[in-house]
Amino acid sequence: MTRTHHFSGHAVRRVSRLAILGLTGLAVAGALTPAPTSAAGGIGFAAPTFVDQVRAGGEPGIIHSNKFGNLVYTSHEGSTHIDRSGGPASIQQFLCPGLTTADCYKNHVWIWTSDDRGNTWQLRDEALPYTGFSDPDLTQDASGSIYNTGIDLANDSVFSSQDGGKTWPHGTTQCHDGDRPWLAGGGTAGEVFMTTDTVENGHEVFHSSNYADSCSATGIIDNGGFNGNSYSGFGKLVYDPFDGSLIEPAQFVHADGSIGIGISRLPRARDAFNGGGETWQPKEIVYPTTVYSPFGVPELISMDSSENIYFAWDTNERDPNGTGGCSNLLPNTGGGPTPLPNHIMFVAGKHVGAGQWTFLPPVSLASQGNARVLWPWSVAGSSGNVSVVWYQMDKMVDPDCDIYNGQTVPDVKTFIYEAQISNALNPSSRRVSVINASGRFIHQGGICDSGTTCVASGQDRRLGDYFTNSVDSSGCVVIASGDTTVPDPISGGPRATSLPIFIRQVTGPSLTTGKSCG
After folding, report:
1. What number of CA atoms fall less than 13 Å from residue 375's CA on the CB side?
2. What is the DSSP pairing of strand 344-353 with strand 356-359?
């Protein structure tokens, strides 16, 4: 929900001293690799379709059931993902999707399933044993049980389904208190791990071995000192089925305020919760760099079938002498450093031994000229095959307050782009196919990047803080996003919340089998 994170007890803001420097000095065992040439690849996506034309679609997640093959889709309920165009008198709606309807505010995240590859969707509301309208996240354990989470600022609930997301009989309303939980299913039936930012200890991981009916009373802290500086894990983690470890993205804050990014790994994670004494092992990979996305760190780690890992992030180049961007002090106003064209960066880590990876130099997947890119997400398939998606705007703007050079840019349009990467671990044979996956814009206007502050400052937060991609049972890419292009049915003006959309790969190779999608 919020955007500040805790490093050794101190809150650190997303924008650092190097926010104006962009990629200057970016290093990871070598210089910045030139942007790869995009290959056609025959990859194509069907037109976006709506999962639901009433309920909100911010922060969507999508996954396919390993056990049953169907798709499961989840999103934020919408109560804090709204467009408040102006002061309090102009609030179009705060709850969702209507203040008096039976389907308005249930204090839980939305869940849908599809048995026909996303052609139709069924809302799942089975008097679920959880609460929390915000921060959904999907994962599954080795037995095929699927897990989700939700928060309401006082709890982190976790709950599970054993039938492909159609019913959710297990769960706890309070795995632990915290903000922005992420989940990773474990290697045994009923096992799930949850990381969250706690008030008392900052970023921690908790464990359940009973399908989320309860969680460990104490967590294992993933933040603190690092080589005279500080670090914290943050973002969607992955469970390594080969060695039982957990790996999550991490941000490294140096004494001068500069930022690096990397990973943090908890070896033998199950044993760590059974008195084994294992602790998180941080590793800085790229320094210095900048990150634009709301969490100030790559948002997730992806792992392929050969234990190679990948992550992507959006940079935040700024003109240090300009004043054409958002203010860092007064929300929704100008006067801050002028934004410059930025990049979607991608790093591949080749598995070379137990708990060890050799990380290749970063490559730029997108730098589209006079505009901005933001919020990358990724999914990996078989060895060296990865899909990365991001939002791409068609004009230069500082998205957080919809401004550029002191003027608002309300007509800026946002599209969904995808890069499909093969041979990601071999720079000489790597191929990258970049495509406009949405085909049409899914949003017009600014995209607030400041969490719940957006609601108070009158900014547009309808898309939430991220969107996701995954693969279906055939290994073909599927994308979940919010969409704000449908007018309000009563007023005819913009809807106060986004709607959930689904995009499916229909041509080009599967990430897992190499066979043609269709």
Report:
1. 26
2. antiparallel
Quickly name the fold that domain 5-507 has: Methylamine Dehydrogenase; Chain H (2.130.10)
- Side chain identity at residue 446, one-letter code: G
Alpha-carbon separation of residue 238 from 27, 62, 117, 233 (angstroms): 25, 15, 25, 12
pLDDT digits (tens, 9 = 90+) for 259-298: 999 999 999 999 999 999 999 999 999 999 999 998 888 9
The residues with which 452 forms a beta bridge, in sequence order, are none
User: Mind listing the pLDDT tens digit for each residue in 435-474?
Assistant: 999 999 999 999 998 887 887 777 899 999 999 999 999 9
Cα angle 366, 371, 374 (rounded to 5 degrees) comes to 55
Q: How far is CA 47 from CA 31, 50, 220, 223, 421, in A?
A: 39, 10, 43, 42, 22
The Cα–Cα gap between 354 and 56 comes to 43
pTM: predicted TM-score of the whole model, two decimal places? 0.92
- Whether the CB-CB separation of 75 and 134 falls below 8 Å is answered with no
Q: Which residues contact 507 (CB under 8 A, 6 or more apart)?
A: 42, 43, 44, 516, 517, 518
Q: Are 298 and 291 in contact (CB under 8 A)?
A: yes
* Phi-psi sector, 507: left (phi>0), alpha (psi -120 to 50), beta: beta
Helix/strand/coil for 288 = strand
* Domain spans in the chain, listed from the N-terminal domain onward: 5-507
